[in-house]
Amino acid sequence: MKTMKTVFFMVLMLLMMLGSLLPQEQKQIYHTKHINPHPPELNGFSDDPCWDKVEWESGFIQSQPYENSAPSQPTRFKIMYDEKNVYAFIRAFDNEPGKIERRVSRRDQTDGDTVYLMLDSYFDKRTAFVFKVSAAGCKADGIITNNGNSEDYSWDPIWDVKTGIDKEGWSAELAIPLSQLRFASGENLVWGLQVGRNLFRKNETSIWQFISRKAPGLVHLFGELHGFQNLRSTRHKQLLPYTVGKLQYAPAQPGNPFQNDHTQALTAGLDGKLGVTSDLTLDLTVNPDFGQVEADPSVVNLTGYETYFAEKRPFFIEGKNILNFTITPGDGDFSMDTPFYSRRIGRAPQGQPATGTGEYLNMPLNTSILGAFKLTGKTKSGLSIGIMEGLTAREHADIGFFGPERRETVEPLTNYFAMRLQQDFRGGASQVGAIVTSLHRDLRNTNLDFLHKQAYSGGIDFSHTWKNRSYYISGNILFSHVQGTPEAILRTQLSPAHLFQRPDADHVEVDPDRTSLQGYGGTLSLGKNGNGLLFATGVTWRSPGLEMNDMGYLRNADMAMQWIWANYPIIKPFSIFRRVSFNFNQWSGWNFSGTQIFAGGNIGVNATFKNNWGIGLSLNRQQAALSQSILRGGPSLRIPGGWNYSIGLNSDNRKKVTVSLGAGLFQGENQSRESWSASLNARYQPSRNFSFSIQPSYSENQNHLQYVAAREWNGEKRYLMALIEQKSLAMTIRFDLCLTPELSIQFYGQPFISQGKYSAFKAVTTPRADLWTDRFHIFTGDEIGLDDGQAEYSIDENGDGQTDYRFPKPDFNILEFRSNLVLRWEFRPNSILYLVWSQGRGANRIDQELNFGSTFGELIHLPSTHIFLAKFTYSFNF
């Protein structure tokens, strides 16, 4: 294995040193002109005389499927400007206008025939603003960063567009206010420019400035937009006050003074934008509301780790790319680690008040955000700036019965701060950056001393490319420091991310007197991202003391990992294939004592056929591992290796009915674990403005090493495990009705059922034994008993007829249903009315045998909570 890795690594290094340069495409240049005194009146046609002042530009080249070929249909455009706007007219010729696909959709979800305009107004050759429009007049807008490797379509500038269709095809007329763009004012400005078109029925893309799909990046290869004279940016000012009316219905609970059958509330808040300079924008929010945001999916987490949920709240999504500090690239567990995880702001309260007999608890679901602001932008010198500050309220829980109530603080007043800087060099071919985060909690007069009082992190990163950006080396290093009471720091040392108490971990130890903890992490990677074989290799690490879970997200400390990745794409259609790519991965990891704890690899192939169907196949091998966390503070346990097989199949997504299928199978050695899953995503679009999708998924998991509990007996620790047989069934349902691009109704619903049965209970004996059966002792019928009345098991290890210790029955039968129905009406630009109906219902029926066929029907009869919201936002622009 080591020899193969060494040979492969040497081959990659040789390819990097001998790699050829990418062919350089000639830069396209378009010359715009100033118009005066009257701008065009937008109607989707070029009949306004002012368009005669600028020339048509054509010469589009097919990008896919047949790269560098003539497109099926010609396209041309014009661009002009005045003191307030940049205007573009894009003419998409079509000799079969009756086949133009005009699907109506919400903003940023354009479908059908589309055209787009990309502007690198910074001219940093890394960043571009995207304005996309469909033949139905639906808009999408976003920001491309990192030279095309990152996209953010949460950006919603104010701009206007009109489309038209005639016998020659269709056209789009755009007016983009200069106040919505970011650029340095000056004379004779040059911007990067790309114009493109998607011909839906042929699944064909053509572009003005040809850029190979093999190219190592995107924005630096744009064409150029010349002709701007004395251009001055207008500082954008926008205020968006809102008000929300809320009505909640929930089943009343007899005797519970906090559980009425309905409650109502009226709240208000404010969002705003201010162009501080031509380069920097300030976003602010006071008492934000996110009631219209789609609910998180249901999950059953049987690990010791916190579940990671993606950010969905608009204020935190927009501009997130500037505050992003990726420690480790990729899509594995390491790639989620970050010093800034915005879901921390407004998190669920962390205090858990104890209740006495007969007492009831009224607990807030989330911490209130009093206010927050972001300052983001990029200066003309190439310095990206991102600053965020947030303040969350002190939250209390009410506890009581029929007598006097009492209150406990469950979350302190907390301040969050993050600053990210990144400087470009060599025309954007190299970067150096830094990040700083800090968190301060006011713990005075609270019972929350188990929380850190302060938490800080800071890091630097760099990226350098050469040979026309085909090769790169990048890296970062990050440090953390947390402070608090000895109770708080002890809690951190014992937490699932650290587990200093592991008895076989000689390189770490628990110190109950510490009042601070420090650590570091980082990544160094080297790779090739253009022209032929693509590859990357690197190493990433997390020291035992690294702690980021106050302001960021950290899954595991005390780990280091190396990896090798390679991909060979074939983008030119051949035989029955439209494109094909082959993948190879290898990885291995160690803890900070130098002990290898995991290793593995996979190979895969993905192909798209000429009929636009696609298939993906993957084979994954996990070597035997040494799990540091499975016993949650106990010794490391040797876990058998296994094989994982997966397949995915999808149909042509242009059709009215589309389907995608996925299936996976994992088989562990020694029959230690077997799991499989299957999913279907079916979408039906019967008309141009309505779509319906249903996504059922089912999984089964049999794992002989599921953690149950830890108990003390005879001065020793017993780590108890069992065989879990888990079955889960979920159904995600969506429909979208877009009456117009500004008026839509959307529904999201997910019934979820998961059943877990535990058996074959065992105690770990020799966790690193070579033989699988020597690592644990399975309790016999004489050693274990179940008390149904107490729903707990009792263990008699020495056979004296007396119970040595007990643990709760861990079986579960979880039923949940969550849904959102949202009407959204954008009655004027960025002024929106939301009407929302949200509901949730659930239960854990431990002793009930679930029948998946009938249980879905039972969900409808479970007690439910219904929330009705009306949110009104009005945009004032100055």
Please tag this protein with its features.
51% strand; mainly beta; 878 residues; 24-stranded antiparallel beta barrel
Largest sheet: number of strands, sense, barrel closure: 24 strands, antiparallel, barrel
Question: Strand portion, in percent?
Answer: over 45%
C-alpha-based Rg, rounded: 29 Å
- Find the CATH topology of the domain at 2-228: Immunoglobulin-like
The quaternary organization reads as single chain
Structural notes for this entry:
This protein has a 24-stranded antiparallel β-barrel. Strands 1, 3, 6, 7, 8, 9, 12, 13 and 14 form a 9-stranded mixed beta sheet that branches. It has 5 helices and 48 strands. The N terminus is likely disordered. The longest helix is centred in the N-terminal third of the chain and has 17 residues. It has a domain of 227 residues: Immunoglobulin-like (Sandwich). 5% of the residues lie in helices and 51% in strands. The termini are far apart. The protein has 878 residues and is mainly beta. Strand 42 and strand 43 form a beta hairpin.
